[in-house]
What does this fold into?
Amino acid sequence: MNAAPLGVFDSGIGGLTVARALFERLPRESVIYFGDTARVPYGPKSPETVRRYSAEILAYLLQRGVKAVVVACNTSTAHALDHLQQHSPVPVVGVIQPGARAAVAATRSGVIGVIGTAGTVASGAYERAIKALRPDARVHAQACPLFVPLVEEGWFDHPAAELIAREYLTPLKTAGVDVLVLGCTHYPLMKPLLARVMGPRVTLVDSAEETAKVVAAELAARGLLAGEGGSKEHRFVVSDDEPHFRKVGARFLGERIKKVEVVPL
It folds into this structure.
């Protein structure tokens, strides 16, 4: 048993959907969440820059004594996961492999859709992960850059959001996908709208939920789960703009965030 906290990081606020999934699946665990709000978004940045930022955050979380790290950012997972795993003394789990596995398990036709930021889609990381598990899969990826600002505005089910979603998702519907991977941590908040637009025959894969399952299994396998009766504490840290994180973060967690530390890297 290990009472040390889990480290979770993202380029900003979206990774709170992963944190929430971890809270629900691992209710005894303490979490330190770091949002790099001074340097968000990571999507348009070069792979080298994303790797450097991610390595800096890993070093900070290790300094805080975490027992494992969850990369709750699709762009960081795409560009930096291998680098982080090679340089970390604790387990590091990303969000892409769990989502890819769930998509392959759920598809009937082998035609899989992926939506994400421009950076995640351009990296081809989901396509590689899916094809490694099912070589004959046909993967159709679509960048949906306007979804992030819509979610942060709280427009999860707004008519404007539906109009934009229909525009983005039409090529995937035309391609006949039967599974849609939500390849950005903001997108689970749009699940009801996306399900309506795609229709009942398309299964949505929430990478946040799938990642929480993998983290739980990894901690159990390594004997790192927190014991019963310990005192858990969740801490939230950002690199800038604490008021915005507190306000928008409440939408992601479904509860008020009482205290946020500011730590510029």
Summary: The radius of gyration is 18 Å.
